[in-house]
Amino acid sequence: MNVFVFDIETIPDLDGGRRLYGLDGLPDEDVAKAMFHLRQQEAGTDFLRLHLHRVVAISAVYATDTQLKVASLGSPEDDERTLVQTFYDVIEKRTPVLVSWNGSGFDLPVLHYRALVHGIQAPRYWDMGEDDRDFKWNNYISRYHTRHLDLMDLIAMYQPRANAPLDEIATLLGFPGKMGMSGARVWDAWCNGQIGAIRDYCETDVLNTYLVYLRFELMRGRLMPDGHARELERLRSYLKAEGRPHFDAFLDAWAD
Predict the structure, then answer these.
(1) Residues near 211 by Cβ (< 8 Å), separated by ≥ 6?
(2) Cβ neighbourhood burial of 171 (10 Å; 0-12, 13-18, 19+)
(3) Which fold has domain 2-253?
(4) Which residues, in sequence order, are CB contacts of 169 under 8 Å at separation 6+?
(5) Residue-range domain boundaries for the chain
(6) Cβ–Cβ contacts within 10 Å for residue 22, how many?
(7) Which residue stretches of the chain are H helix?
(8) pTM for the model
């Protein structure tokens, strides 16, 4: 096992909004309001197009046969470039299997755009066989390869009408689901200086994804029932040992 289960949280890219919409001179809050309003007029939703998101948190479960860690990348003070670079550095150094829920539809495209904005290099991630022949047949980019497992996309058989929210799937399986926040509230939390709460929320989201991933591995026979039970207990023990309040709350909400 060498998996990197990840999730990102974003806010409006205010600098990008100022450039694209001629909003120089407006305070951040007004720029965001204008961006949401323009998007609502354009599409009937205020969910911004992916190239207008700015990454403020990336959280992950990193699991190997001998190591388990749940954390947000970087520090709360790190700028976006550092966070995005750190994400790609993990891939460069460890070549893990990436696991996500809707990573193909949201997280990875956003990270692509932000890497473009910041001039970040990620040769291992973008390799499709030019440098490593094995990557021709199994790379991070192809939808049907397994170096990136978008669980939502795969379980739905690549049919958008069959997609399901992570929160609902996690809850159906007896896992905690959303806790204390949602993606729609991240901007308000950011405006209130609550980056710690955003990172904690992102970590609980990625824990749900990891638990769904373990159930998926059981379903497809990569984990046997006893191995699946051991992985669940390993995660419980890790979260208990960490003793962080949001991990304790997650354990309390996790059904047997």
Answers:
(1) 170, 173, 175, 232, 235
(2) middle
(3) Nucleotidyltransferase; domain 5 (3.30.420)
(4) 212
(5) 2-253
(6) 10
(7) 14-21, 28-43, 80-94, 108-118, 123-126, 134-137, 151-155, 166-172, 186-191, 195-219, 225-242, 245-253
(8) 0.96
CA distance 12 to 50: 10
Please say whether the beta carbons of 181 and 198 come within 8 A.
yes
Structure tokens given for 236: 């419980």
Q: CA-CA distance, 190 to 160, in Å (whole number)?
A: 31
pLDDT by residue, tens only, the chain of 256 residues: 899 999 999 999 999 999 999 999 999 999 999 999 999 999 999 999 999 999 999 999 999 999 999 999 999 999 999 999 999 999 999 999 999 999 999 999 999 999 999 999 999 999 999 999 999 999 999 999 999 999 999 999 999 999 999 999 999 999 999 887 777 789 999 999 999 999 999 999 999 999 999 999 999 999 999 999 999 999 999 999 999 999 999 999 997 5
**Do 96 and 3 contact (CB within 8 A), yes or no?**
yes
Say how far apart CA 238 and CA 29 lie, in whole Å: 39
Distance CA 30, CA 69 (A): 39
User: Which residue from 78, 34, 38, 52 is spatially nearest to 198, judged by alpha carbons?
Assistant: 78
| Cβ-based neighbours of 232, under 8 Å, separated by 6 or more | 211, 214
Tokens 């694209």 found at: 20
Residue identified by tokens 């890219």 is: 13
